[in-house]
Amino acid sequence: MTEMKAHKDPAMPPPIEVAEGPEWVDALTLLDPHVAQTLLAAARTLYPHDGLPERVYRRVILHFDRMAAHSPAAAQSFAEFADRVDGAMPLPFRDLSESYRVAALKGLEASAAFRLVQRSTVRFLYDDVEVWQAFGYQGASVHLGGYVARGFNDLDWLPEPPAGV
Fold first, then answer.
1. How high is the pLDDT of residue 2?
2. Domain total in the chain
């Protein structure tokens, strides 16, 4: 398979830069580092992709931090979510095994705080160009001349259609 590069519309802002080590929490402007680490564990548990690097999940949390900075209600919901999942088991949420994390999250599914975390994770995780690249999605094409000019039928994993169809 040839190397594919994902493209985001150049009018869109570039991805948030995130540090590789534990100092990534220094980029937070409002969220407490413990809340951020708890949200990170929740995002990874809700949408586990072993092939994705930790930095894409950290970018999700940096987006949460921006949301919290613009909305006191969102900030309160993120803090409430972290408190509730941490209180669900004897250990902090981020120290739990995946099965216990899933159980803790299931206990919160009906809450507004859970819905905010779950829906925002979907939005920010799957709108990351690095995730697109990992999954083989080419992204926007208008600025490149459209899909047809870029090999609209270049899917090499589909069988050829029968003759005469």
1. 46
2. 1
